[in-house]
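Hi V.,

Quick status before I head out on leave. The structure for the redesign project is tokenized and pasted below; the design run finished overnight.
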């Protein structure tokens, strides 16, 4: 049994990170429901609450992994939308490169080891061995503001998970193969896939989880006036 920790809002935010190795310990459905019910307090424009969630465990999660890994070997990815800019520029390029090479360096994967990179990225599709996988969608006829609503809801899921002593990893990787994900989940044609997410207990012995990402201080991105 895992004791539920006492954690402040500040600590939940500060300790949230993308975990890439999980323990096999199961997460009960009731705990997942609790997290999603707490997360549903997220704001949304005129309270439309646009989010839909698919929670997978056991054989259903394995079925998703098998289908997407098979599709990955069959040909190039066909994402429905571009998460990242088509042409990178500073300071975003430097930040992206740093976190990527920091991660691969921890794992002993060199820049010329393309097979190693391919294999490590492929672990996304095993949910990094987490016991629960989540997928988030919304109705395609909704507009740009809904992406903001979804972001706030998804962040709430990650913070509510910390409140239960769990960790997460939000995954844009799944949008590389939206048709396969849609087929396995049985999505309606009007459902827009946003991302996936791993949910479970962190394997704190795994080297990959020692990665510490940097954040700019607020003075670097905030203009203060009238204080």
């Amino acid at each position: 049994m895992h004791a539920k920790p006492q954690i402040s809002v500040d600590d939940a935010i500060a300790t949230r990170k993308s975990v890439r190795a999980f323990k096999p310990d199961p997460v009960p459905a009731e705990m997942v429901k609790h997290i999603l019910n707490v997360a549903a307090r997220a704001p949304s424009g005129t309270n439309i609450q646009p989010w839909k969630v698919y929670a997978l465990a056991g054989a259903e999660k394995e079925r998703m992994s098998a289908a997407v890994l098979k599709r990955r070997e069959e040909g190039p990815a066909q994402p429905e939308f571009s998460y990242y800019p088509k042409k990178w520029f500073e300071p975003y390029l430097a930040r992206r490169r740093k976190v990527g090479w920091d991660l691969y360096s921890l794992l002993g994967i060199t820049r010329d080891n393309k097979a190693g990179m391919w294999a490590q990225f492929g672990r996304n599709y095993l949910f990094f061995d987490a016991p629960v996988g989540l997928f988030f969608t919304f109705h395609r006829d909704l507009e740009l503001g809904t992406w903001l609503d979804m972001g706030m809801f998804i962040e709430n899921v990650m913070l509510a998970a910390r409140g239960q002593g769990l960790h997460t990893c939000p995954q844009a990787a799944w949008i590389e193969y939206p048709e396969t994900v849609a087929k396995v989940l049985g999505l309606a044609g009007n459902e827009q896939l946003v991302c996936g997410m791993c949910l479970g207990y962190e394997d704190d012995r795994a080297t990959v989880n020692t990665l510490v990402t940097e954040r700019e201080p607020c003075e670097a991105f905030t203009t203060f006036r009238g204080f």
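Above is the designed sequence. Residues 144-163 form the longest helix (20 residues).

G. will cover questions while I'm gone.

Best,
W.
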